[in-house]
Amino acid sequence: MTDGVLTNMLIGPQISPADADLAARLTALRVAIAGAAASAGRTEESITLIAVSKGQAAGRVRQVCSLGVHHVGESYLREALAKRAALAGLPLTWHFIG
Known about the structure:
Layout: H1 3-11, H2 17-39, E1 51-52, H3 58-66, E2 71-74, H4 77-86, E3 93-96
Parallel strand pairs: 1-2, 2-3
């Protein structure tokens, strides 16, 4: 094993800058939701975050799911059907939005 491979095994999988940016934006969004919920006298758990996948590839939805988002909204039936088929094994709840 080279030192680089060993280091990767010890510190975990590498995260691409795009994935790190997505995770950071999702964290910021969750903080904002928690603040808004508290301001309204609600709990964060009483709010459902729905990620809109319109125009996004199934792989991007898979990334969002891996970050803990399990509700997905789609506004195009063809895209929704294709993504649901491609992501059938994931714990997703689909919403048709318009």
